[in-house]
From TrEMBL:
EC numbers: 1.3.1.12
Protein name: Prephenate dehydrogenase
Keyword terms of this UniProt record: Amino-acid biosynthesis, Aromatic amino acid biosynthesis, NAD, Oxidoreductase, Tyrosine biosynthesis
Catalytic reactions on record: prephenate + NAD(+) = 3-(4-hydroxyphenyl)pyruvate + CO2 + NADH
Protein origin, superkingdom: Bacteria
Prephenate/arogenate dehydrogenase domain boundaries: 10-288
NCBIfam families per UniProt: PRK06545.2-3, PRK06545.2-4
Stated family: Belongs to the prephenate/arogenate dehydrogenase family.
Domain ACT: 293-360
GO MF term (any one): prephenate dehydrogenase (NAD+) activity
This protein's pathway: Amino-acid biosynthesis; L-tyrosine biosynthesis; (4-hydroxyphenyl)pyruvate from prephenate (NAD(+) route): step 1/1
InterPro entries referenced in this protein's UniProt entry, alphabetically: 6-PGluconate_DH-like_C_sf, ACT-like_dom_sf, ACT_dom, NAD(P)-bd_dom_sf, PDH_C, PDH_N, Preph/Arog_dehydrog, Prephen_DH
Length: 360
């Protein structure tokens, strides 16, 4: 699997046994590697240990690789500590790369700095802590590897081995370019979700009762930990502010188009949204493939969803994504199966012939 890369043989030390750290630890344990855990919270180490993610670290451990997975503001300090304490390769999984690199470079020798290679898995969730961890978290996800100019190539290779072992796709990037990229594809979307969700907080119950999948899709990440996101946004303020300025101009143009009844301008703005969603690469980094949603009513009984998935499998159509919405007051769930566009009609017809109620 990691043919041209140095072998990850362990021990692996994880500093910060939360969502991301414990997920990395679970992958490494699944590979049979020795994993040692450190965390400012003894309880999180206990919880992660209980999940089978490794054991508590001791002063005599000699890790091959240290993975720093603490909140953004604590990353530089934990990386410096790991470089001073061990002779291991050290990576971190923080969401922003330039500011921690500058802080580490100011505090360690060039020889120690050569063993530090930043990285960033583009996977996670709105939940935090070890109980939200999963060894499958990184499957098929991009994972940026952001070496500085003087990084040891063998250290870069070892970090890429970890990424590949986690089932993710390593993407090598310059730290500053990475920060501009995540401002666009992660930090701005997060803030957009927060602004939309903020309009719901004190909304009348009768408005909220109409909520469907659209509002849930657009607001999901707004449920994330505010303290974590404050630190992410502070660490990437420059790139985020540039984009927010562009969005402010877009918002002015949008308000003018809506208020002036300027239909053509409004269509242009909406069409830019179409172009943006089409530009997002497909799963596994491939080109975006057009998909279509197929809606199926599923009785609210044990085993019905499994039967639907089983039927789709027998029909030979791959389900790219799935959403389930409950029909208020009726014992059915409306299930949205997202499938390759060219397969949707075949799936609909075959499900109907097996007795499923579909909606076009
Ligand atoms: N949450 C997400 O979806 C993603 C987060 N990240 C990055 O991963 C890092 C960790 O995030 P999560 O796992 O979500 O957070 P988390 O809150 O689940 O875990 C952080 C852990 O670090 C511990 N900790 C805090 N300060 C520490 C210190 N000084 N020394 C040792 N342990 C310390 C906490 O007790 C906690 O167990 C962050 O830098 C974040 O930017 C990266 C990709 C996705
Ligand atoms: O939940 C999601 O979809 C996310 O996008 C989570 C996430 C949060 C922070 C990151 O730096 C990377 C990914």
């Amino acid at each position: 699997m990691t043919d041209d890369l140095p072998a990850l043989t362990g021990p692996v030390e994880v500093v910060g046994a939360g969502l991301i750290g414990t997920s990395v630890a679970l992958v490494c344990r699944r590979l049979g590697l020795e994993v040692v855990l450190r965390d400012a919270s003894a309880e999180n180490v206990r919880t992660a240990t209980g999940l089978g993610a490794g054991r508590s670290a001791t002063a005599t451990d000699r890790p091959q690789l240290v993975v720093v997975a603490v909140p953004p503001a604590a990353i530089a300090g934990a990386v410096v500590d790991a470089l001073h304490r061990t002779d291991a390769v050290v990576t971190d999984v923080g969401s922003v790369k330039s500011a921690p690199l500058a802080a580490v470079a100011a505090r360690v020798s060039p020889a120690d700095l050569a063993r530090y290679v930043g990285s960033h898995p583009m996977a996670g969730s709105e939940r935090s802590g070890p109980l939200a961890a999963s060894a499958a978290l990184f499957d098929g996800r991009p994972w940026a590897v952001t070496p500085h100019a003087d990084a040891d190539p063998a250290a870069v290779g070892l970090v890429e081995s970890l990424v590949v072992e986690c089932g993710a796709a390593p993407l090598r990037m310059d730290p500053a370019e990475h920060d501009r990229a995540v401002a666009r594809i992660s930090h701005l979307p997060h803030l957009a979700a927060v602004l939309v969700a903020g309009r719901l907080a004190a909304a009348p119950a009768e408005h909220l009762a109409l909520s469907g999948q659209g509002v849930r899709d657009v607001t999901r990440v707004a449920a994330s930990d505010p303290a974590l996101w404050q630190q992410i946004l502070e660490a990437n303020a420059g790139a985020v502010l540039d984009l927010l300025g562009e969005v402010r101009a877009d918002l002015d143009a949008l308000m003018a188009a809506v208020s002036a009844d300027a239909g053509a301008d409004l269509v242009d703005i909406l069409a830019r949204g179409n172009a943006g969603t089409a530009a997002i690469p497909g799963k596994h980094g491939g080109p975006a493939r057009p998909t279509r949603s197929v809606f199926v009513s599923v009785p609210d009984h044990p085993g019905e969803l499994a039967r639907l998935f089983g039927d789709a499998g027998e029909i030979g159509v791959n389900i790219e994504d799935v959403h389930i919405d409950h029909d208020p007051g009726r014992p059915v769930g409306l299930t949205e199966l997202v499938v390759e566009k060219g397969r949707a009609e075949h799936l609909l017809a075959a499900l109907e012939s097996r007795g499923w109620t579909t909606h076009r």
